[in-house]
Specification:
Layout: E1 2-6, H1 16-24, H2 39-53, H3 57-64, H4 73-83, E2 85-93, H5 94-103, E3 108-116, E4 122-126, H6 132-142, E5 146-151, H7 157-162, E6 165-169, H8 173-178, E7 183-185, H9 188-198
Parallel strand pairs: 1-2, 1-5, 2-3, 5-6, 6-7
Antiparallel strand pairs: 3-4
Helix pairs in contact: 1-3, 3-5
């Protein structure tokens, strides 16, 4: 039994924090897991900036409402789901992901949740588990699945390396240079062809 595990941001939809950085005019928020491998550190830093500026969940959700999937992402996902099971494993949050899942045809997503005060201030975040992507892939393997994984960032490398087959997709030059043994693709057609070979 195969199951394909995909990252969300940078792979199927644009990076939410980059879109919000542009919409809010706060360039520091463009920093993502492509730049900072320590997710807790990155999120705490982001929440500090939001608090400083008096921004909360509502403002971020207004930006997310305007984000569309990367061209070709829904078609890629639809084709993949017609052939095998697919789970999106993301370090994003349910409060951010829901509108995007609707645009992608409601695929299954495993992600985290935000702690939000009554006034809409994001006061914290709750991670589903430690090293959520790698842990999830290992859990799937423990119940009899062979995993195939793809992502673009530092936090995807664990699940990519732990899988039967793993690919970088739309990644950075630095991550590709640091992981020369991993196949790296830029188009959905290339990624689909690679996945089909191992299904």
């Amino acid at each position: 039994m195969n199951i394909v595990c995909l990252d969300l941001e940078g792979v199927l939809v644009p990076e939410i924090w980059i879109a919000f950085a542009e919409a809010s005019g706060i360039p520091e928020l463009k920093r993502t897991t492509r730049d900072e491998p320590d997710y807790d550190k990155l999120m705490n830093w982001r929440l500090g900036i939001l608090k400083e500026r008096g921004l909360g969940l509502k403002e971020i959700q207004e930006t997310i409402a305007k984000i569309d999937p990367i061209p070709g992402a829904k078609e890629f996902l639809d084709e993949l789901r017609s052939m095998t099971q697919v789970i999106i494993i993301s370090d994003t949050f349910t409060q951010f992901a829901s509108p995007l899942m609707e645009k992608l045809g409601w695929p299954t997503i495993f992600c985290n949740s935000l702690e939000v005060a009554e006034d809409g201030e994001i006061t914290g975040f709750k991670m589903r588990c430690e090293q959520s992507k790698l842990t999830t892939v290992k859990a799937l393997q423990s119940i009899g699945y062979e995993t195939i994984a793809s992502g673009d960032s530092h936090n995807d490398l664990g699940m990519i390396r732990a899988s039967k087959a793993g690919f970088l997709f739309k990644s950075t030059d630095q991550i590709k240079a640091d992981n020369p043994d991993l196949e790296a693709f830029e188009t959905y057609d290339e990624l689909m062809a690679a996945i089909k070979k191992v299904l």
